[in-house]
Specification:
The structure is a single chain. By secondary structure, this protein is an all-alpha fold. Helices cover 94% and strands 0% of the residues. Helix 3 runs antiparallel to helix 4.
Amino acid sequence: MATLMTEFEQQFATVTADITSKICIIASREEAEQRVLVQEVEKLVEEAKELLERMELEVRDADPPVRERLRGHIRGYQVELSRLEGECGRVRASSMASGTSARDELLGGGTGAGLSVGEEQTQALLDNTETLERTSSRLTQGHKIALETEHIGAQILNDLHSQRQTISHSRQRLREADSDLDQSSRVLGSMLRRTLQNRQEGTKETKHSWRCSGHLKGSILGT
């Protein structure tokens, strides 16, 4: 799960960086190219939304603490994507206004509208620069999360290896204990057989002594 989530986050960071870079250059392009760039940005926004949906599905099976932490990341990504959507809408409206102003300028020769469009483009560039910086920060954060996830995965592997060694040692001790029990059982069996054998031999000797005593008494009485 962690590997897929990290992959989704990296893809989201790449897509949002692409969105930001395209938004930054829209204002400086001709009207026809602006329309193409706006369409590309809209497709990238849809792709980012799909990635967020896949993230939501992925974190459902995570442990509660991890799930809450990852959902916090997703909420931040959603806020970032909503802001980028707003930027896209504003740039699209600005490009349409720019085209209209350019046509008006060609038809009417006014200069006030051109100045207004230039100011809007300057402001758009400033806003998009800030957006690019935030996206770069997101990429850095995503890389940090990936490193943390890799570190956690390494710790889990080490713990599993340690647990495997512990289980292996426990099995070895059980085998040794079984061997000791078998040996003890054999010793006790041997001792029991000797005891029974000695008891039987003692009984035979006692019977033999009784027979001897009987013959001796008979001899004395016959005399």
